Amino acid sequence: MKPEALLHPTPAGLFCPIGRFHVDPVRPVERALITHGHSDHARAGHGKVLATRQTLDIMRIRYGEDFCGAEQAVGFGESVDIDGVSACFHPAGHVLGSAQILIQKDGLRINVSGDYKRGVDPTCASFVPVPCDVFITEATFGLPVFHHPDPKAEIGKLLTSLKQFPDRSHLVGAYALGKAQRVIRLIRDCGYDEPIYIHGALAKLCDYYQGQGIALGDIRPATIEKSTPDLFKGAVVVGPPSAFQDRWARRFNEPLISFASGWMMVRQRAKQGGVELPLVISDHCDWPELLETIREVSPSEVWVTHGREEALVRWCELQGLPARPLHLVGYEDEGD
Ligand SMILES: [Zn+2]
To answer: How far is the CA of 183 from the centre of ligand 1 (A)?
Structure first.
């Protein structure tokens, strides 16, 4: 069987005609297999959704009880038969519950890795290399210029700034699912045990992470009352990046704006966003990790879903490895 007969790109996303299911569809479909809870991969309104228990819980938190018609939780390492096609979920190391989905039929193995990273992250299960014939990878940071530094060293910059500017409120922008909890956990692992204040948009997901055994320490709502303007002097406040552009941020004492994202490697982006303290912390692979993963998985073909496809496709070809871009649209990652 040709790989395209088992899985191929459509406007709604990757589709398996034999099992009649889509993977991470960008529009409502009858049957969806979902890799992780970021809003560009996990959308509401599908008939049936198969995903890990944690991804299903996260979808429910974000979209409400009726986020889909029916759901089926799949554990890591567990295989599910869908009309004669086997689907098996393995950890992707991207955010809590994130999975790669291995699709198999008649000995042909196609692995959809979703979004993934290789760096250490105590807030989710680590990526597992899965041998396969076709490896489907993202390429968000698929250019040789992208090297992500040690995240603890980045958090070190934040802690140094807190000492240097003890009166300023340090506002750290981090996406609500995954990045925010990882940043809080990193701050704790670097020895900071003061209360950390969070924007209301992070509350439910932080509670969920804590409930899943990811300790985040003393986190409190960042609600400003007129009587307590000094409460946030020299405090760490974590919120979604969008909140820092509105009035909410200006109520803090001499706010120092920070942002945790892989894109903070690009100085221009930090400048444009008015970010005083950029922290390069990414939940995606950098260039060396992408290459390392492809070497390790050792597929006979690579398909690249989204991001900077051309450089990665070219690199594969130079290794004698057939590769092609899928040009999937609709994946503007909320969790870079
Ligand atoms: Zn993602």
So the answer is: 16
Q: For residue 1, report the distance from its CA to the centre of ligand 1, in Å.
A: 31
Q: What is the 3-state secondary structure (H, E, C) of 139-208?
A: ECCCCCCCCCCCHHHHHHHHHHHHHHCCCCCEEEECCCCCHHHHHHHHHHHCCCCCCEEECHHHHHHHHH
- Whole-model pTM: value is 0.95
140's CB contacts (< 8 A; 6+ apart) are: 115, 262, 284, 285, 306, 307, 308, 333, 336
Span from the CA of 195 to the centroid of ligand 1 (angstroms): 28
Q: In what order do the strands lie in the sheet with 21-23?
A: 8-10, 13-16, 21-23, 31-33, 46-51, 68-73
In whole angstroms, what separates CA 146 from the centre of its chain?
17
Q: What DSSP letter does each residue of 85-115 carry, written as one string? A: EEEEEEE-SSSTT-EEEEEEETTEEEEE--S
User: pLDDT tens string for the chain (336 positions)?
Assistant: 999 999 999 999 999 999 999 999 999 999 999 999 999 999 999 999 999 999 999 999 999 999 999 999 999 999 999 999 999 999 999 999 999 999 999 999 999 999 999 999 999 999 999 999 999 999 999 999 999 999 999 999 999 999 999 999 999 999 999 999 999 999 999 999 999 999 999 999 999 999 999 999 999 999 877 667 688 999 999 999 888 877 788 788 789 999 999 999 888 888 888 899 999 999 999 999 999 999 999 999 999 998 888 999 999 999 999 999 998 888 876 667
C-beta neighbour count of 227 within 10 angstroms? 7
Q: Which amino acid is at 85?
A: V
d(CA 38, ligand 1 centre) in Å: 5
Ligand 1 centroid–CA 42 distance in Å is 9
Q: Which helix (H) or strand (E) holds 249?
A: helix 247-250
